[in-house]
Amino acid sequence: MDEQRTVKVSKYLSRHLRHQPERIGLTLDANGWVEIDALVQAAAAHGFRFTRAELDHVVATNDKKRFAVREDQVRGTLIRASQGHTVEVDLALDPVEPPAYLFHGTHHRAVEAVRAEGLRPMTRHDVHLSADRETATRVGARRGRPVVLSVDAAAMHRAGHTFRVSANGVWLTARVPVEFLRFPEA
């Protein structure tokens, strides 16, 4: 499977497992899971065909591990997006104690709003944080010149904020108030 096709299938999966399952007639369960066979059939019925082998390739090779697959004895093989949903799902992730610092990559145009309001989930359910600066830099670079913010996660945790970590290592929290953010020097 070539890289262009891999990206195309990945974007299709992200759109329909995170944002618009109803657009192709899918219903995610409460935790965001859907049967792979139902997904493949719904996509084909709406003009986007891909094979199970292509789906497996996308899941296995995605550098951000955006998708999780699991076996269910009753329903068969299921898939879901690891995080980033705009549709209502409960990923059923247990609260965990975060490392002392986490990082958030954004673009330079967003910094002033973040200075005023902190980090908010915007259209998603949670703010996404990275365990290392390198990952946060890549995330921030998607929309221009990246800015990496440090999050005093230990202090947030002591103050009662809840953290969870997704299957692909993305740290999730409801919001990050300004007082827990460290901005890079200008």
UniProtKB/TrEMBL annotation:
EC numbers, comma separated: 2.7.1.-
A family per Pfam: PTS_2-RNA
Molecular function via GO: transferase activity
InterPro entries according to UniProt: Ptrans_KptA/Tpt1, RNA_2'-PTrans_C, RNA_2'-PTrans_KptA, RNA_2'-PTrans_N
Keywords for this protein: NAD, Transferase
Root EC class: transferase
Keyword Protein transport included in the entry's annotation: no
HAMAP family to which the protein is assigned, alphabetical: KptA (MF_00299)
Biological role: Removes the 2'-phosphate from RNA via an intermediate in which the phosphate is ADP-ribosylated by NAD followed by a presumed transesterification to release the RNA and generate ADP-ribose 1''-2''-cyclic phosphate (APPR>P). May function as an ADP-ribosylase.
Family named by the database record: Belongs to the KptA/TPT1 family.
Entry protein name: Probable RNA 2'-phosphotransferase
Organism name: Streptomyces cremeus
Gene responsible for this protein: kptA
